[in-house]
Amino acid sequence: MLKNPIIAFFKLIRIENLLIIIITQWCIKYLVFAPINIFSKFTPALFTISLLSTLLIAAAGYIINDYFDVKTDKINRPETVVIDVVIKRRWAVILHIIFNGIALILGLYLALKCHTLKLLMFQLLSILLLWFYSTHFKKQLLVGNIVVSLLTATIPLMPMVYEYYLAGGIDSLNSFLIGDFLKTLVIIVLGYSAFAFLTSFAREVIKDMEDYKGDIQTGCKTMPIVWGIITSKVVTFFVIVITIGLLLLANLKFYKEKQFIAVYYILGLVILPLLILLIQTIRAKTSKDFKMASLLLKFTMLFGIAFTIIIKYLYE
């Protein structure tokens, strides 16, 4: 049982997941986009504001999710319950409102800097989707999984979006010089977004299998409950196979370009763990087995993010 209020707060906002968001966006901004940073109008200060806005929305989403999930969590993982144990329910709501409010103000500032208020829709939609995920979508077949996966897929895209809208100040000569770089870099970021969507979707299904016992007692209609554990395993299997297939296509490109360090990295640190995950997911029977599979997938996602170091080496 969690006792320390500081540790409980960090647990509530999923500090480890927030760190992954920080690492992801920092790597996209300062490693993938390293070749054009000299021309970039997306300054470190603006990047920090954008990152803070994203982190606050994510933290608020985790808080409100736990707020509505207390009953289920007491069944699935009672030792990690924070709300009603360490932090009172009203304080959870207050924190949710404050975090989202600050995030919207920061998002408005960035939108004004980019001279287009439509960028504020990222923050507004994220807040609304996370709210409805916690209240409705999470308990529905596929909807919750897709919502979380889509939001995860936007994380690597955000630095590129702000780079794009702030690029109006780049003169034509600089635009010409970085044009070829941008095509490659945009493809890389879109690839990261696709990787984030697929791995996040697989992980969400695995987590649903892990939480089967508590979810079925609280009236959820998740994939394992509606379609069964075996079908959920099959879906996870094919999502991971698709991910591996796309990674092999990317590897083929690196192989043709004789970028063997990239080839070996993807094969050894991304594809191999995914193959192990396939076997582990098929064999999984208990909640503990699915938890280990989910953890392995999270580490694989981190190795995928770390590939940005190789990208910087290849394109600098």
Can you walk me through this structure?
The chain has helices spanning 5-12, 15-32, 44-68, 70-76, 89-113, 120-135, 143-154, 157-166, 172-210, 212-217, 223-226, 229-256, 260-283, 287-315. With 316 residues, the chain is mainly α. It has one domain (5-315). Helix 12 runs antiparallel to helix 13. It is globular, with a radius of gyration of 20 Å. The mean pLDDT is 91.
Task: Annotate the secondary structure layout.
Layout: H1 5-12, H2 15-32, H3 44-68, H4 70-76, H5 89-113, H6 120-135, H7 143-154, H8 157-166, H9 172-210, H10 212-217, H11 223-226, H12 229-256, H13 260-283, H14 287-315
Helix pairs in contact: 2-3, 2-14, 3-5, 3-6, 5-6, 6-7, 7-9, 9-12, 9-14, 12-13, 13-14
Characterize the biggest β-sheet.
none
Order of helices and strands: HHHHHHHHHHHHHH
Task: Return residue spans where pLDDT drops below 50 for at least 5 consecutive residues.
Answer: none
**Number of DSSP helices?**
14
How many distinct domains? Answer: 1
Could you say which overall geometry the principal axes of the C-alpha atoms support? Answer: globular
Question: Which bin fits the share of residues in helices?
Answer: over 70%
Class per helix and strand makeup: mainly alpha
Distance, first to last CA = 49 Å
How much beta, percentage-wise? under 5%
Average pLDDT: 91
Q: How many strand units?
A: 0
> In angstroms, what is the radius of gyration?
20 Å
Key words describing this protein structure:
mainly alpha; globular
